[in-house]
Amino acid sequence: MSYAIVGFGKVGQALAHAFARKNIDVSVASRRPPEALAPQARAIGPTVVARSLRDALEADTVILAVPFGEHREVAKALPSWKGKTVIDAMNGLVPPEELDGLLSSAFVAKAFTGAKLVKGFNHLAAAKLAADPIVEGGHRVVFLSADDEDATAPVVALAKQLGFAPIKLGKLNEGGALVHARGRIWGQLIFQDLFRKEQ
């Protein structure tokens, strides 16, 4: 399984730290050329490699960490997203009327035709996401939701590999609504920094 993080701001870099901590290869890309990202990527760890957007999108799993308004540009970079898993780590801080009455991830899914879309890694502040998720007696929780049950399996596996405790919330418009932001309305689980103890 190959991974890419698109967007290299605070959240993208926080996720890159999580991959580097576990020595998992990940491509990082943004609107800026790879040469501009390379020094920061190298500073995070040797498994974090800056690539062009086109090259990064060859990954099996793509994590969206761009500002919400830029997701359509990323979607246009590939003619088809079939066979790919897209993890939406963004928060839709736009007026609800701009989302056609949908939750932000359902709106994003329309742009990534053919992809399996999973909402995840969006409810924590970047500093918490970057920190070691394993603490004495437990693992930091990440919430996952998707309309396709099969889509969450590889993301659950990735979250565990990164040291997090994944909790599935069901479909986007059901439990997933708890981790969605629409305009100034935040889901109840956003910013909840929870840990799950080892069984």
Characteristic terms for this protein:
199 residues, alpha/beta, Rossmann fold, 10-stranded mixed sheet, two-stranded antiparallel sheet, 7 helices, 23% strand, globular
How are the SSEs ordered, and which strands pair?
Blueprint: E1 3-6, H1 10-21, E2 26-29, H2 34-44, E3 48-50, H3 53-56, E4 61-64, H4 71-76, E5 85-88, H5 104-111, E6 116-120, H6 126-130, E7 134-135, E8 138-145, H7 149-161, E9 165-168, E10 181-182, E11 185-186, E12 195-197
Rg is 16 Å
CATH topology (level 3) name: Rossmann fold
Shape: globular
SSE series? EHEHEHEHEHEHEEHEEEE
CATH architecture: 3-Layer(aba) Sandwich
Task: State the helical fraction.
Answer: 25-40%
Biggest sheet: strands, sense, closure?
10 strands, mixed
SS-derived structural category: alpha/beta
Unreliable stretches:
none
CATH class identity: Alpha Beta
Explain what the structure shows:
The protein is α/β, with parallel strands linked by helices and 199 residues long. The protein has a single domain (3-197), classed as NAD(P)-binding Rossmann-like Domain (Rossmann fold). It is 30% helix and 23% strand. The protein contains seven helices and twelve strands. The protein has helices at residues 10-21, 34-44, 53-56, 71-76, 104-111, 126-130, 149-161; strands at residues 3-6, 26-29, 48-50, 61-64, 85-88, 116-120, 134-135, 138-145, 165-168, 181-182, 185-186, 195-197. The strands form two sheets. Strands 1, 2, 3, 4, 5, 6, 7, 8, 9 and 12 form a ten-stranded mixed sheet that branches. Strand 2 (26-29), helix 2 (34-44) and strand 3 (48-50) form a beta-alpha-beta unit. The longest helix has 13 residues, at 149-161. The chain is globular and about 40 Å long. The two termini are 27 Å apart. The model has no long low-confidence stretch (mean pLDDT 92).
